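Working notes for the structural subgroup meeting. M.R. asked for a predicted model of this chain before we commit to crystallization trials. I am recording the input and output together here so anyone reviewing the notebook later can reproduce the run.

Input as submitted:
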Amino acid sequence: MKTTVRQVFIAGATGYMGSRVAAELARRGHQVSGLTRAGSERKLPENCEVVVGDALNAATFGEKIGDADTYVQLVGVAHPGPTKSRQFREIDLKSCKESLKAAVANRVQHFVYVSVAHPAPVMKAYIEVRMQCEELIGQSGLNTTILRPWYVLGPGHYWPYLLKPGYWLGRQIPSLRESATRLGLVTVKQMVAALVASVEAPAKGILIIEVPEIAKGAS
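Returned structure, recorded in token form:
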């Protein structure tokens, strides 16, 4: 079945996840534009239209979205950790607010957001901010797909492999099985596949995609 060509705007298109998603969407024939700071234009993948602006200020890029029907919000603090609670509020939360402002103003049909699996016993500040973002998205009225990974394995992010034996053990114990599955590991390829699938099959209302669904994608 032929896939409808989407016009996709990506905030965070030069990042770890965004650059891969932008490249794959462009490879599949979609029209992709990516938000980047001045001086970082060359970090965007080929066949991706450059939009220069500040992800923390919709006034710098909101009028440059054009006819995008899909908005993918991937801006966030790199390598999240317990010591970065202030950055989560100043970057993750602020960029989400500004992205929503731009998406609503441009009547974008579909908003795609990467949140985080929750509840969880660690990373409470990070989870709190991502849950705030989910709440704001719900209030926006936009058709939205929200993906909730936990740890994402990939280049430069291999240390979570050390946790795999613990996850296996957790899935064997009935009282731990649900949390071990919900807070499981996914690969960057699986995340990219899930994000691309979300763009190509827009949600009606709000669709939540948890770890088990993400893990069904490319390995």
